[in-house]
Design a protein that fits this description.
Layout lengths: L1 H74 L2 H11 L4 H22 L1 E2 L2 E2 L1 E7 L5 E4 L6 H4 L1 H5 L7 E5 L8 E10 L2 E10 L1 H7 L7 E8 L4 E2 L17 E3 L3 H11 L2 E7 L6 E7 H5 L4 H28 L1 H82 L7 H26 L6 E3 L1 H9 L2 H9 L3 E7 L5 E4 L1 H17 L5 E12 L12 E10 L6 H6 L18 H11 L3 E7 L3 E11 L21 E5 L3 H13 L3 E5 L2 H10 L4 E5 L8 H11 L5 E5 L5 H9 L3 E4 L4 H13 L17
Helix pairs in contact: 1-9, 2-3, 10-11, 10-17, 11-16, 12-14, 13-14, 14-16, 18-19, 19-20
Protein name: histidine kinase
Pfam family, one: HATPase_c
EC number: 2.7.13.3
Length: about 750
């Protein structure tokens, strides 16, 4: 029986040796890893604190540079130059010089009042002195004690441009000023002096960091005006001293170092001679533990672990046989428990995955619906509007050529009106994708309802639902609202269509209007805020909706209607978009088997409806041979524009790209450019107009596009293209825009026709 004992001793030695080597390597790895980690943490903390300090310094630099530039605008202003010009001409205070001073004073007062930080004024005073120290003009209030003395004021004269501190003897308050000399025709004529509120600058920019013992703004002696030399300032310095002498800084640092280790930070403040400095506690930034101390502690720990490991392994080796059997049994139990846990975790993970996948599928469906709308609207709007231009514009040209009694006039008007309705449908798609009603007119909901009930669209709906009848309950003389009659008419049409589809066996649709005042929020579908509204309701006696359907009723493409009669499910989404574009609210009341009522709330307006103006004769829009350059990548668009302008008496030149437009303008003068904003290849309208302005500054232009007004269109308008015409445009609209632009004056009127073209 001795053989097993010897075998166990041999195994014991091998195990002890192996474990000792593993522990040694592991602890060594911990030593090196912790040493480097601590060093990186200290470096990172120091860099982060330095970055925060530099950020504060940059903020102060940016503020001072900004104020320097703003005061420079005053120095370069025409009023100050006019004052010295009048004075040089010998003008007296009685004959005009006083008026110049008063105008300059008002400019200084306005400037001081506008310069604020968190609603606190930045400047105490902004003044201009002559070379003798006399006040020319200031922003008020009356002179402070420090500046009443002419000798003290003289100390600020002829100083180089920059920021200074002024603290005359006997005065506790320190003044932080910016001064710059003023030269008129190379002669020194005075000094501009701006006095800041020191407490505002200190509270906003000279802030201490989280570990700061002291933070201050220091300056060389040349920046400290009339500050008397003397013994070093005691610490801390007076709170009203914003600029501190450089010579005290090192003394204060040495004083702090006697108590604890410190770190110092310095940063130049912009282009000034000032420096922002901070004395910070080293232990608050990088901690108190040194990497060397940690290394020594880890070495001692390593030795202790190695000794303990050897002792433990000797004790374990004596019980190795028994433990092996116990471990085998325990291992089996653990394996079973582990597998059970893994199985349970896998089941729970699958449940979570299913829930997450369901949520993601719902979100994805919503995103795909909205993306489909955006792709549909953005993809067809430009091209479809280009196509519709022919349908909208050619009838105008044909009507000009027909005699008054022609039988073709009515069909041509019908074609034109159909094209305009198609344009409105494209605008519907853009409403879904972009939102925003571009037409704002004063309208009455009763008029919209009555016009809709007489429309072919309503008759078509009723033809599909012969057992449905519509009744109205319209309030007499409700308030007007502001919005788009086209969008609101389509909103009513979609609600009526939805109601008719909900009554397959027939029923009654009730359309009602009423002016209501809501004194507290109401609503079951969405909260209607307090206010005064004109409410229109559309109620049916149909089957009603379930709670699930009512939640989805306004989602794009959600529909239970018969395809071919009622569209593709965008109608109720258009309702939602139109109401929101009018800053309105929607409430829905429905019950299965009893019907549904939609309530739409629109804010009232006290403005009156404008009376329709008579159409102006075509002669009012004709030109006198002016040259118009038409830039459009679509040939049909160029042809239509050329025909319109030729009929109106203009000389027309057409090109198909921005590059050709730039080349043409380089060689030829034109009176006006009709410029398409989006072109298939090459540079777009904005880049074309920018290049043309480099060749011909002030060149007049009109922007056209099939899209809604974009940032690039607004930028082109800021460059000088004052008008934007949305495609497709009618002859009257484009003719009025061209005539208005060529006249170049808002006072020009075309026989009672408004000269401003909107982006409808």
């Amino acid at each position: 029986m001795r053989q097993p004992t010897g075998f166990l001793r041999e195994k014991e030695l091998i195990a002890i040796l192996g474990i000792a080597l593993i522990l040694t390597g592991f602890v060594g790895f911990l030593l090196i890893s912790n040493y480097h980690s601590l060093q990186k943490l200290r470096d990172s903390a120091l860099k982060q604190y330095a970055y925060e300090f530099e950020t504060r310094s940059w903020s102060l630099s940016n503020f001072l540079e900004n104020q320097r530039q703003k005061i420079a605008t005053i120095a370069n202003a025409g009023k100050l130059e006019l004052y010295f010009e009048n004075k040089a001409l010998g003008m007296s205070m009685k004959y005009g010089l006083r008026a110049t001073i008063l105008a300059l004073e008002q400019e200084l007062i306005r400037f001081v009042d506008q310069q604020r930080l968190q609603d606190r004024c930045i400047y105490q005073r902004l003044a201009i002195y002559n070379p003798q120290g006399d006040l020319i003009v200031d922003s008020g209030p009356p002179l402070s004690i420090a500046l009443k003395d002419r000798r003290r004021r003289m100390s600020l004269l002829r100083l180089p441009e920059g920021f200074y501190a002024l603290q005359p003897a006997g005065i506790k308050e320190q003044y932080f000023v910016y001064t710059r000399p003023y030269y008129f025709k190379t002669q020194y004529k005075g000094q501009i002096v701006a006095c800041f509120y020191t407490d505002v600058l200190q509270s906003q920019f000279i802030k201490s960091g989280r570990a700061a013992l002291f933070t201050g703004l220091f300056a060389p002696a040349s920046q400290l005006v009339e500050i008397q030399p003397g013994p070093p300032l005691s610490f801390p310095p007076p709170s009203n001293n914003i600029l501190l002498p450089d010579k005290h800084y090192q003394q204060w640092v040495a004083g702090f170092e006697k108590a604890e280790p410190v770190l110092t930070f310095e940063s130049s403040v912009g282009n000034t001679n000032l420096q922002l400095r901070e004395i910070a506690s080293a232990k608050m930034i990088i901690g108190t533990t040194s990497p060397r101390t940690l290394l020594l502690a880890m070495v001692l720990l390593f030795i202790g672990l190695l000794g303990a490991a050897i002792l433990i392994m000797r004790m374990i080796a004596h019980n190795l046989v028994l433990q092996t059997r116990v471990e085998e049994s325990s291992k089996k139990e653990k394996d079973i428990a582990l597998k059970n846990k893994q199985l349970q975790a896998e089941i729970e993970e699958r449940k979570r995955s299913e829930l997450e996948r369901a949520k993601l599928e719902v979100q994805l469906q919503r995103v795909q619906k909205m993306e489909a709308i955006g792709m549909l609207a953005g993809g067809v709007a430009h091209d479809l509007n280009n196509i519709l231009t022919g349908i909208v514009s050619y009838p105008d040209l044909l009507l000009m050529q027909l005699p008054e009694d022609s039988s073709l006039k009515d069909p041509l008007q019908t074609i034109k009106q159909s094209g305009q309705k198609a344009t409105a449908i494209v605008q519907d798609l853009l409403t879904l994708a972009r939102r925003g009603v571009v037409v704002n007119e004063i309208i009455n909901l009763n008029t919209i309802v009555n016009d809709y009930l007489q429309s072919p669209e309503n008759k078509k709906i009723l033809s599909f639902h012969e057992n449905v009848r519509i009744v109205t309950d319209l309030e007499e003389n409700p308030y007007n609202i502001s919005g788009s009659s086209v969008h609101l008419s389509k909103t009513i049409m979609n609600l009526v269509s939805n109601a008719a589809e909900a009554m397959p066996e027939g029923g009654t649709i009730t359309i009602a209007t009423k002016t209501v005042y809501i004194d507290r929020p109401i609503g079951t579908y969405e909260e209607v805020k307090a206010g005064e509204y004109v409410r229109i309701s559309v109620a049916d006696t149909g089957s009603g909706m379930s709670a699930e359907d009512s939640e989805k009723i306004f989602e794009p493409f959600f529909t239970k209607k018969k395809m071919g009669r009622s569209g593709t499910g965008l109608g109720m989404s258009v309702v939602w978009g139109a109401v929101k574009d009018h800053q309105g609210y929607i409430d829905v009341q429905t019950e299965l088997g009893k019907g549904t009522t939609f309530y739409l709330y629109f804010p009232v307006t006290r403005e009156k409806m404008k009376s329709a103006q008579p159409d102006s004769p075509i002669e009012d829009y004709k030109g006198h041979g002016e040259t118009i350059l038409v830039v459009d990548d679509v040939k049909e668009q160029r042809d239509i524009a050329q025909m319109i302008f030729s009929k109106l008496g203009y000389a027309v030149v057409t090109v198909e790209s921005g590059e050709k437009a730039v080349a043409y303008v380089k060689e030829n003068a034109v009176d006006l450019i009709l410029l398409d904003m989006i072109m298939g290849s090459g540079i777009d309208g904005l880049e074309t107009y920018t290049r043309i302005l480099e060749l011909c500054p002030g060149q007049r232009a009109i922007i056209t596009s099939g899209f809604s007004e974009t940032d690039r269109i607004r930028k082109a308008k800021r460059l000088g293209a004052r008008q934007y015409i949305k495609k497709p445009y009618t002859l009257e609209k484009i003719a009025l825009a061209v005539k208005t632009e060529l006249c170049g004056s808002e006072s020009h009127k075309l026989n009672n026709t408004d000269s401003t073209t909107t982006s409808q």
